[in-house]
Amino acid sequence: MSTNDGSSMKPGRITLHDVAAAAGVSKSSVSRILDERLPRSESESAKRVRQVAAELGYVRDISAASLRRGNTSTIGVVVPHLTDTVMAMFYEAVARACQKAGLFAIVVATSRDEPEADRAAAETLLARGVDGLILTTAQLGEKFTQELQLRNIPFVLALRRSGNGLASVGDDTLGGYLATRHLLDLGHRKIGIIAGLSYSSSSSDRLIGYRKAMDEAGAEIADGWVVPSGFDIESGAEAAAKLISHPDRPTAIFAVNDNTAIGAMSWLPSAGLSVPGDISIVGYNDIPIVRHLAVPLTTVRVPFDQIATGAIELLRSTTLGPNDRIRIATPTLIPRRSTARNASKDV
C-alpha cells in the first residue's frame, strides 16, 4: 500500500500512527481530530487529517479506546417487546442519541413486561460490561430499580417512571388532557377511554389527564367508560366492544396508545359503526402506520428523540441537583380524520 506522497505502508489495520505519519502531524493531533465526541475542527490541518484517514481506510478501534478509558462506551436498553412499534421507534432514537454522544446502544427484549424477565435482561447486559442501562419497563411500585441504586449501577428510566431513579419521559398527563380536550372541543361529552395497564405510569398519567379534562368541562364519567387493556391491537378491539355495549354508549373514545386505537377502529364496523361518523377516536404515540390508515388516526405525538437524548444526558451527568432528576418532553396533538364534531343531539 502506498500513500499520496509516495511512501509505502504495510498491509493490515490502519492505525492512528499510520495516519499521523502520512499526514505529517502528531499521533495525539490525529486522535483529537478524529474523535467524533469532540467539536469538529475545520482547520486546514484537520481537513488534511480527515482526508488522509479516509484515503487510508482508517476505522476507529472502539474496543481499544474503551480499554484506555476504562469503559465500553456501550449502553444497554431493555424494552418489553422488540415487535412493539413504539419500542422500535424509541430504540432507534436512542441509537441516534448514542451515536451523537460517541456511544453504542445494545438492546435486549424482555418477555411481556414480566419483572423477572426484565431483571434477567438487565443482568445479561451488565454481564456484558455495559456502562449503564436505559429501562423502558418500569412498573409503579416495583423494587428492581431500588436494587440497582443500592448496587450503584448507573441507570435511567425512559418512557415510564417508577418513583425511583432518574427518568426521561413524555408529559403523559398533558398528552391525555390534550387528547380528551380535543374531543370535548368537538362537542363530545360521552368520552370513553381504553386505559392501558394500571402498573404503567404512562397509562396512569394519561388517565389522569383524561379525568382532568373531563372534570374541567363538567362532563361526568359514567361507570364502565374507563376500560383497562393491554397495549396490543386485540386488547383495543376487546375494549371497544365493552364500550359500545355500554347502556350509555360513548360518542368518542380516547385510546392511550395507537395499537389499541387501531384495534378499536378495526372492530367498530362489525357493530355497524363508522369512524368518525358514529364514533370519534384519538390514539397516542403517532406511530408511522396511523397516518396511512383508510381513516387516518388523530393521535398525540411523542417526541422520542428528545426523550432519548434526555436519557443519555441523565445517564452521563455527574452533577445533578434534586430538581434535575427527571426530564419531561412535551407531546403534541395531531388532528386527522378519525375525529369529527359530535352530530348527536344527546350530549
Automatic annotation (TrEMBL):
It comes from the Bacteria. This is Substrate-binding domain-containing protein. Residues 14-69 form the HTH lacI-type domain. The keyword Repressor applies. Transmembrane segments: none annotated. GO terms for molecular function: DNA-binding transcription factor activity; transcription cis-regulatory region binding. Keywords: DNA-binding, Repressor, Transcription, Transcription regulation. SUPFAM superfamilies: lambda repressor-like DNA-binding domains, Periplasmic binding protein-like I.
